[in-house]
Design goal:
The chain is α+β, with helices and mostly antiparallel strands. The protein has 2 helices and 5 strands, in the order αβββαββ. It has a domain of 30 residues. The protein has a 5-stranded antiparallel sheet with strand order 1-2-3-5-4, with helices on one face. It binds adenosine monophosphate (AMP) and zinc ion.
Length: 109
């Protein structure tokens, strides 16, 4: 499968990794939409949250968010996951966008 995030998870493509364990990984987005824009992925390939996610992987990405927040001493953040083309998803490997370092005046929800 030609998936860029699978390649990052396997270390075949470089990324600025913030945190990693055996099930999940966090790395900086190459096209940041905020001063700090980090992507959190499960190492196992899922397209998006429409898929049935193994409980361990679901917990792993949430734990990964907490580890990033703690290690970077983040005080507030916004977490987004685009699921499907209609929502703007471009990379079809499940990921959470963690955005912080600026105000978020335009609330979408
Ligand atoms: P989405 O539109 O929700 O699928 O988000 C995909 C995100 O992946 C975008 O914000 C891209 O900037 C980011 N991205 C694509 N390729 C890479 C890469 N090689 N390393 C880091 N981020 C990437
Ligand atoms: Zn993948």
């Amino acid at each position: 499968m030609n998936c860029i995030f699978c390649k990052i998870a396997k270390g075949e493509i470089n990324a600025r990794v913030v945190y990693e364990n055996d099930k999940a990984m966090a790395f900086y987005d190459i096209n940041p939409q905020a001063p700090i824009h980090i992507l959190i992925i499960p190492k196992k390939h899922y397209e998006n949250l429409f898929e049935e996610i193994d409980k361990e992987d679901a917990m792993a990405i949430l734990d990964c968010v907490k580890s990033v927040v703690k290690s970077l001493n983040i005080q507030h953040y916004r977490l987004v996951s685009n699921a499907g083309k209609g929502a703007g998803q471009e990379v079809f490997h499940l990921h959470l966008h963690l955005l912080t370092g600026r105000e978020f005046p335009a609330k979408t929800v």
